Amino acid sequence: MTLVVAFQMDKDVVVGKDVSVKFIQEAQIRGHTVFFFTPSQLAIKGTVPIANACLVTVESGALKFGGVQELFLENVNIIFIRQNPPFDMRYITSTYILEKLKNPLIVNNPKFLRDCTEKLLPLLFHDFIPSTLITEDYSMLQDFYREHEDIVLKPLYSYGGNDVMRVKDGIDIKVIVALMVEKYGCPIVAQKFIKNINDDKRILLLDGKPIGVFKRKILSAGEIRTNLRVGSVPEPAELSDRDRNICLAIEHKLTEKGLIFAGIDVLDGYLIEINVTSPCGILEVNRLYNMCLEKKCWDCFEEKFYAKCNS
Length: 311
Prior knowledge:
Helix content: 25-40%
Structural class: alpha+beta
CATH topology of the largest domain: Rossmann fold
CATH architecture of the largest domain: 3-Layer(aba) Sandwich
Radius of gyration: 20 Å
CATH class of the largest domain: Alpha Beta
Oligomer: single chain
Largest sheet: 7 strands, mixed
Mean pLDDT: 95
Order of helices and strands: EHEEEEEHEHEHEEHEEEEHEEHH
């Protein structure tokens, strides 16, 4: 059966570096019709969610876009929400609009994208997280700093390692806190610094179960961020017993909330983030293990869609 598929995503994606493009390619291989629109092209007309969308294909290593047309999103079979944070009011508004849809399967469920933000969701699994404080109150952050002496500060709703900072040796955090709150307008995540920073894994989860894992190795001296976008490199890895226990602990929550595709960050056995907005890692797993994870993912997406149709 040919499906109608739509991707809500950023326009500045790079073919060969973006998971969304892999999903588009695989949809194309399966004969599905694929549309593209950005969050700014989403609308609700009266009570009807629509988008100014265009057909998209992958040709000769590039995305090719057709003309813009009004797309009634209730007529789409599967919708992917794949734009990157920031998790701001524009992002939140798009989830409210998409949440009104009844017919499409949406990857991931917009209500729970909104409710289950990536740095807050791990707090539900307190047995697996490092000592954590989330606030913008300077006095509480200062007390946490005094207690642990070596901590990491990061904005709650940013991504990709932006403005992640380690503070230790009695460095005054007052200016850091003030600047971060002013820049992002949200609370700060403070966590006890984990020394074994080269034991950092990205684990990909499909319908709550692990389908791929790799380690992110830091190359730059003095760097603490393991994000690939700041220069870390992927290396093969295996799931430890602790990793498997984390996956088992969060599986039900992910499947219950319709968070079909996710990526978790595990640092030295501690659950740091549960990425559900636009998880990456498929390209790295494919290269490291000679796999085509996008095929496995699409098998799951189609199965979920047909099950929804028959429910």
